[in-house]
């Protein structure tokens, strides 16, 4: 029996039930369901949260990444076959966005401690076809953006952040979404800022990109029945925008709670078989703020640890079991030699984490981790 679920989404949304119902009712009664005031308000609020000029709502996080690369192609900044550097251990969506645009993913080994892009490995992977750095802020911690931006400037590269797991994460007070030329966000229900369905957004300080994206998400059109581009239908509808406006108000509060849970895990878990995640929050030179979308430990004995925790009623998940280059969909990359990435995928295990996980439950997870022993 599960007594501590990995993430209890019903309880997360129940805490805001009356506000969410009020917002839903407002949209139902308005008679306006797509492209209205709710979207405008959320776009303005989220842009201001990220401290950027523009936020463009789209249908989901994958589209946010796909359409940004697509817009750069429309603007003549990218062409078929250009190379996009991406951490090899990312979630599949980052890679799908690249190949969907006929661009070439260049898989780079991450830093094994932070799970994020390693600047030295990025430098070693640059070619005369490299045009974009896709910086994925995995598990809630920003990639090493100060150094990655320096590389991008030196080599005139576009920087696309994949911020799907890192709403509000920052370095030196500068948040995810405000580092690169553009940033894709997901508001999938389980993300730190989650809708009650699919939703996503792009943030950028570039007005030309903003304009192009607004057309591409809407049949390539700014003006009804006039298409500038062969666009798509990828819109963030009014009900989800209204849900997100309610939830954005509580985002910092839920991040604070996640940080408290993470600190209980980090201080409490003490077991030679379990390697704890490295947060750069104590880096006093570059103040880092980890938002702990996931608390990911590593162990050479994952199956046994997962079974042990499960027996004690604790649900864990694996983010992610198979790296992109080992997916059937990407068989052309299966012979790449990426040992750090493969080790990460063999060893990672995500502990329960979320805004309604109690501190007592977190202590119980700590005790369960500490009582783990190898079976003979
Ligand atoms: C969730 C996620 C996405 C995709 O977002 P969707 O809204 O599910 O399409 C992209 N990249 C990363 C790193 C993610 O975690």
Automatic annotation (TrEMBL):
Active-site residues per Swiss-Prot or TrEMBL entry: 191 (proton acceptor)
Keyword vocabulary terms for this entry = Pyridoxal phosphate
Cite the GO molecular-function annotations of the record. Answer: pyridoxal phosphate binding; transaminase activity
Q: Which residues carry this modification: N6-(pyridoxal phosphate)lysine?
A: 191
Query: CDD domains of this UniProt entry?
Result: AHBA_syn
What InterPro entries does this protein map onto? DegT/StrS_aminotransferase, PyrdxlP-dep_Trfase, PyrdxlP-dep_Trfase_major, PyrdxlP-dep_Trfase_small
What does the entry give for GO biological process?
polysaccharide biosynthetic process
Family statement: Belongs to the DegT/DnrJ/EryC1 family.
Q: What is this protein called in UniProt?
A: dTDP-4-amino-4,6-dideoxygalactose transaminase
Question: From which organism does this entry originate?
Answer: Pseudomonas arsenicoxydans
């Amino acid at each position: 029996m599960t007594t501590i679920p990995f993430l209890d989404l019903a309880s997360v949304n129940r805490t805001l039930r009356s506000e969410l119902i009020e917002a839903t009712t407002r949209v139902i009664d308005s008679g306006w369901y797509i492209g209205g005031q709710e979207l405008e308000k959320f776009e303005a609020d989220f842009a201001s949260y990220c401290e950027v000029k523009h936020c463009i709502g789209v249908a989901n996080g994958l589209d946010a990444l796909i359409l940004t690369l697509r817009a750069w192609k429309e603007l003549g900044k990218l062409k078929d076959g250009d190379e996009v550097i991406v951490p090899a251990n990312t979630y599949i969506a980052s890679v799908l966005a690249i190949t969907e645009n006929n661009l070439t993913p260049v898989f780079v080994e991450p830093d094994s401690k932070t799970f994020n892009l390693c600047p030295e490995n990025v430098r070693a992977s640059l070619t005369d076809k490299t045009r974009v750095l896709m910086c994925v802020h995995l598990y809630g911690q920003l990639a090493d953006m100060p150094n990655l931006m320096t590389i991008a400037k030196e080599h005139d590269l576009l920087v696309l952040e994949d911020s799907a797991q890192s709403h509000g994460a920052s370095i030196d007070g500068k948040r995810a979404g405000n580092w690169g030329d553009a940033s894709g966000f997901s508001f999938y229900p389980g993300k730190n800022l989650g809708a009650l369905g699919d939703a996503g957004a792009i943030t950028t300080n570039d007005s030309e990109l903003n304009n192009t994206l607004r057309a591409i998400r809407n049949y390539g059109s700014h003006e009804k029945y006039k298409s500038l581009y062969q666009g798509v239908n990828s819109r963030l509808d009014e009900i989800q925008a209204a849900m997100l406006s309610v939830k954005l108000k509580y985002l910092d509060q839920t991040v604070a709670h996640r940080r408290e849970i993470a600190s209980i895990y980090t201080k409490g878990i003490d077991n030679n078989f379990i390697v704890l995640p490295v947060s750069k929050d104590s880096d006093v030179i570059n103040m880092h703020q980890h938002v702990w979308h996931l608390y990911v430990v590593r162990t050479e004995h994952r199956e046994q640890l997962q079974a042990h925790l499960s027996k004690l009623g604790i649900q864990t998940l694996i983010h992610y079991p198979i790296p992109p280059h080992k997916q059937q969909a990407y068989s052309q990359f299966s012979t790449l030699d990426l040992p750090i990435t493969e080790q990460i995928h063999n060893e990672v295990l995500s502990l329960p984490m979320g805004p309604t996980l109690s501190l007592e439950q977190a202590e119980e997870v700590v005790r369960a981790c500490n009582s783990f022993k190898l079976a003979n």
